[in-house]
Design brief:
Length: 360
């Protein structure tokens, strides 16, 4: 950022929302979508609370908007940083702009003690210059964006830099945001996969959309070797997503995000991505998981037979001990005795097999 940049006051009417805001859904990108953006922000960005604060205390001078001259609308400025604050001020000044929560907006505007006609802003010469500044602020800085916003920002910066060599591109982006090349590569690769999911209407998974999708889970998944291989990501290609198998991507998306009647996914939690990665490294385990076996059971099938045996036996012993410890809490019946007889018979058969293997 140039040292010459100063804070100046700009009329609210001359300020428009960033047409490329990485925090907005793709459907809201572009110009002349003010009412739609205000509606989305009222529903998703706690704008009403901000309206109350600004209406009570006035606009905080230490939080200037970061703006550039509009490339499409002469005499206007695009707000690259501070769109939520701009929304709050616009609604305070003109509550009729609201198409949702109309009563709450009108009440907040009526109760406002202060009005803001001009907003303190810092004008940057170019959007590229501003994007680089935002890299420090929102990727590794004090006001972090969510993972999807970070990915979209990095992609915008990548496009503006126009670096042909991919490795050099990753290195440059990593330096700008103060991160690693592997982080940049993984999050941009994840964005390519996400874009394909979005293009396929999120595979019509109930409740899954641009707002609800957990992009952090997605890009962490695609950064794992076996998951990436399963859906067809080629880490060495200029476009890793070019060879993706859409059917397998649909499977993966469903496992991670489609919820059952108990509001759980096949993955259960993001911390089990390592287990899913292990399952997809083994054809037998993958087949079992696809057939409906829970992830915690399918992962047992990923090791060598001796490891599977040890894990299964230890789990069986733990379960039998739990059953034994419950005996004082209820009255057993003949059916339970039959189950125990089956356990004894299987154990005896297993003992015979082990002895035979040892003799061999």
């Amino acid at each position: 950022m140039n040292a010459d940049l100063l804070i100046e006051s700009i009329e609210v009417e001359k300020l428009i929302f960033d047409p490329d805001n990485p925090r907005l859904p793709s459907s809201l990108k572009g110009y002349n979508k003010e009412k739609e953006i205000l509606e989305w922000m009222l529903l998703n960005e706690n704008v009403l609370e901000l309206m109350g604060s600004i209406g009570e205390k006035g606009y905080f001078m230490a939080e200037p908007l970061l703006i550039v001259k509009s490339a499409k609308k002469r005499g206007f400025y695009e707000v690259v940083e501070g769109n939520r604050r701009l929304a709050a001020v616009k609604l305070l000044n003109t509550p009729a702009l609201a198409v949702t929560k109309k009563n709450s907006v009108a009440e907040a505007a009526k109760d406002a003690k202060k009005r803001t006609k001009k907003i303190p802003s810092i004008l940057f010469d170019t959007k590229d210059e501003l994007l680089i500044y935002l890299g420090y602020r929102h990727i590794t800085g004090i006001k972090e964006w969510d993972a999807l916003a970070k990915a979209k920002y990095l992609n915008s910066l990548r496009i503006s830099l126009k670096i042909r060599d991919k490795q050099e591109e990753f290195k440059t982006l990593a330096k700008i945001i103060g991160s690693s090349t592997s982080y940049v590569r993984n999050i941009l690769s994840g964005l390519k996969v996400y874009s394909l999911i979005e293009k396929n209407n999120f595979f019509n998974i109930k409740g899954l959309n641009e707002v609800s999708v957990e992009f952090g889970v997605l890009y962490n998944a695609t950064g794992r070797k076996n998951i990436a291989h399963f859906i067809g990501i080629d880490p060495d290609a200029d476009d890793p997503s070019k060879s993706i198998n859409v059917k397998k991507l649909e499977e993966l998306t469903s496992w991670m995000f489609a919820k059952d009647d108990n509001n759980e996914t096949r993955l259960v939690e993001s911390r089990f991505l390592k287990d899913l990665d292990a399952v997809l490294s083994n054809n037998y385990a993958t087949k079992a998981f696809r057939a409906g076996r829970p992830l915690h059971e399918a992962v047992l099938l990923t090791g060598v037979p001796a490891v599977i045996f040890a894990k299964s036996i230890n789990k069986a012993i733990d379960n039998v001990k739990i059953a034994r410890d419950q005996m004082s809490n209820f009255k057993p019946d003949a059916t339970m005795l039959m189950v125990v007889d089956d356990i004894i018979k299987i154990s005896q058969d297993l003992k015979t097999l082990i002895k035979a293997k040892i003799r061999e």
